Amino acid sequence: MNMLHRDQLPLGGFAGLTEHRLVVDQRVGGDSGTWNGLGNFVYLADAHFQPHGETRMHPHKEIDVISVLVEGRIEHQGSLEHGQSLQTDQAQAQRAGGEGFNHNEINPDSKHNRMIQLWVLPETRGEAASYKLYNLAQNQLTRIYGGVKHQRDTLDSHTIIEVGLLSAEQAITKNTEFMAYITRGHGVLNGETVQDGDLVRGDHLDFNALDDVQIIIITTDKTVA
């Protein structure tokens, strides 16, 4: 098992936000200071928006962009679901596909907020752009990305992203290769104490929450067709 600590990495950012980039895969220009991903998962940034900060309108093409709102609010603008808003413990998934999309994420409030952004490379190029919004369920894992093609709940992929909102003493087990990022609270993962800002990868996952926890888990499922 390997662990990367957010606060040991340099703080960067752009426009109206500051961020730590923990995963920047070599396939999207990463270097030795960041980790490669898992499956088609290639990027993870932990971002704090300045009061009334925004990313500014910018394009994406042939990438799936997943955002998890840890704290605060976001107003979403762009060519997909313009006017949508996100609250704490909601997530959105945007597929750029071949047609691409433009978007701007805005902090409408006079205090900082926090959003985790993940990118996943598409398995099929040239697909139509699309958008999904999720309310994260308490005391369980919510799948926000990945699955078979012929369903409407998630964007299809062999790469699976789930978010858990867990209470103290709740446990999760995954008997497969994984990456996990703790975004709230504390727990014990494969015998090691972990907390907000810890990114972990390993061959199997046994996690027990010590208090209220938000955790993002990435796995792959080659049986998805």
In words, what does this structure look like?
This protein starts with a strand and ends in a 5-residue tail after the last strand. Strand 17 and strand 18 (192-195) form a beta hairpin. The chain has a single domain (2-220), classed as Jelly Rolls. The chain is built from no helices and 21 strands. The mean pLDDT is 95. The strands form four sheets. Strands 2-3-4-11-6-9-12 form a seven-stranded antiparallel beta sheet, with no helix packed on it. Strands 1-19-16-21-14-13 form a six-stranded antiparallel beta sheet, with no helix packed on it. A four-stranded antiparallel beta sheet has the order 5-10-7-8, with no helix packed on it. Helix content is 0%, strand content 56%. It is an all-beta fold.
What order do the strands of the largest sheet run in, or round the barrel if closed?
2-3-4-11-6-9-12
- The separation of the N and C termini measures 29 Å
Domain count? 1
Estimate percent helicity. Answer: under 10%
Q: Which architecture name does CATH use?
A: Sandwich
Uncertain residue ranges: none
The count of helical stretches stands at 0
Index terms:
about 0% helix, 6-stranded antiparallel β-sheet, mainly beta, Jelly Rolls, about 55% strand, about 220 residues
Structure at a glance:
With 225 residues, the protein is an all-beta fold. It has no helices and 21 strands.
Q: Mind sketching the topology for me?
A:
Layout: E1 2-5, E2 12-14, E3 17-24, E4 41-49, E5 58-60, E6 64-71, E7 73-78, E8 85-87, E9 90-95, E10 101-106, E11 113-120, E12 130-135, E13 140-147, E14 157-166, E15 171-174, E16 178-184, E17 186-189, E18 192-195, E19 198-202, E20 205-209, E21 213-220
Antiparallel strand pairs: 1-19, 2-3, 3-4, 4-11, 5-10, 6-9, 6-11, 7-8, 7-10, 9-12, 13-14, 14-21, 15-20, 16-19, 16-21, 17-18, 17-20
